[in-house]
Write a structure and sequence with these properties.
The protein has helices spanning about 5-10, 15-70, 75-95, 100-125, 140-185. It has about 190 residues and is an all-alpha fold. Helix 4 packs antiparallel against helix 5 (about 140-185). The longest helix has about 55 residues, at about 15-70. The N and C termini lie far apart (about 70 Å).
Length: about 190
Amino acid sequence: RCSSDLSTSLNPDLKPTIVAARQKALGYSQELIDDYKKTRAICRNLYYSLQMTTILFSGITPILVLVDKLQTSDSWARWLPVIFPAIASIVASIVTSFPFQENWIAANATVELLEAEQEKFILGVTPDYRPPLDVQDPKEQLQRAGQAIENYINQVNSIHLKRVQESSNAEKNQNQSQMQDKGTSKPSGEPVS
């Protein structure tokens, strides 16, 4: 796919070198895309599963309270109105403690950016990615093809680095927020003013 336009206009001696370099660059970006797709799927599935679990256990709780009022003889049934809300609370805490939804959305945005950049590179629609089809000198063809590949890798790395920095900053902010919350709460024995 990446060599169709190149095959007719490039110096035949350089074509295998340039095509191999382009395929290597595309392979690198595809690995990143696949990794972000995997992250997106895992975070989305965890988020939805945990949310559904919270909803289910929270919804069952009033029913279990009514069952408890029926005076059943099973001692294990008396614990159900306590166990289900506890599980719902734990699951809800997990959802708020770990930013599954934010990671899913950010990974999705990164996938879209990387795929768009990949298409621009494959099609050569931007000046930075245009193949050197109008150049006859083999050295200049190789140099311009190398520059297009370098521009592409730099852009892919820029997109990836931006996502990594956003993730790191979000984690720092969450840790600082948790530290502030711990610092402002008073021990239970002291009056709150």
